[in-house]
Design goal:
homodimer, alpha/beta, Helicase, Ruva Protein, domain 3, two-stranded antiparallel sheet, 6 strands
């Protein structure tokens, strides 16, 4: 195979959920496209890579030189609520649902022995100063409902022990909307029973 | 969402089998990667888009200015066999299996009323001259085993009616290796029965 095409396929194949077959299809579709879609994509990648940085306050990716991100700039979102999430895709998911109107804090990972992520790797250093500066009254944990997620949540709560006038909360566990009990795992069912509500 | 990131996601989402969720994952993985994988990908795209063209003889993508492609240059492949395929990914598939050692001819599509592909859209104009110049003795059709594939094959054979000393062949139809009869469709089963071999 032509080395330039081979290199392109390999780079595409390494992207999440693409793989070798997908990389071949993508490379071929770009090379056979006469409308310059490939060049447009290359330019967009370079533009984003060179001009997007994490917000120094919350970690949301934002334009370089813009100071803080759109969420931190928006005084309408300074409602005292701070939602702690793992990464930017969680912010996008929450934004799409329009369920939360406060500010975010991206910690960038979950504590995990398997992948070697330590407390020092989490973006949590400025949490106390954010709570003070932005007069945060509630911290909502929206981390994955897994062992790693819960471990990370406990760790963060423990580091904020001496912070006053802040309540901590986490998303409810239970049966998802439209969820058939036949297809719900035992762990979820146990949590749903434990958290049952009176009618 | 940040407009630069949004644009990047949209361009990735349009690639084959990626979609919006996949585009988000890919964009995020590149933006969060510190090793410059995004820039390397952008450079590889531009390099391939600007320096790769179809071989003027057979249609295989090759370096610009190299004349004909690696297959057409390789005199070891001038064995009189010419394999007609739809696109470059079919060439890659056949090369991986090491089943064919002749030359290729990419026609670039299949005749189809639905997608409006006409005989003039097929890369077949130089087939007669290739047969003469390269002393082709067998033309092997490796087009998809579909109505469009067979229609295209019949069309190409009809245009080569007055070519002499060439035999035409097509890939065998039948039960794939490891194929359980339970999962084989009726059409394939009919073809496999019709083409049965004595032991």
């Amino acid at each position: 195979m032509n080395p330039k095409i081979e290199k392109l396929i390999k780079l595409f194949a390494k992207l999440p959920r693409v793989g070798n077959r997908g990389g071949q299809r993508i490379a071929l579709s770009l090379l056979q496209d006469k409308t310059g879609r490939g060049i447009a994509l290359a330019n967009a990648i370079v533009d984003a890579m060179e001009n997007i940085v994490p917000c120094p306050r919350c970690g949301v990716l934002t334009d370089v030189g813009a100071g803080v991100c759109e969420f931190c700039r928006d005084s309408g979102r300074a409602n005292g609520q701070l939602c702690i999430v793992r990464d930017l895709s969680d912010v996008w998911t929450l934004e799409k649902s329009s369920v939360f109107h406060g500010r975010y804090h991206i910690i960038g990972g979950l504590l995990s022995g398997a992948s070697g992520i330590l407390p020092t790797d989490l973006n949590v250093k400025n949490l106390p100063s954010r709570i003070t500066d932005e007069i945060i009254t509630e911290i909502i944990f929206a981390l994955p409902n897994t062992v790693e997620g819960k471990t990370t949540q406990h760790y963060i709560v423990s580091t904020l022990n001496d912070v006053e006038n802040v309540v901590f909360s986490e998303l409810a566990s239970g049966v998802p909307l439209g969820g058939d009990l036949d297809y719900i795992d035992d762990g979820t069912l146990t949590l749903a029973f434990g958290g049952r509500k009176s009618l």
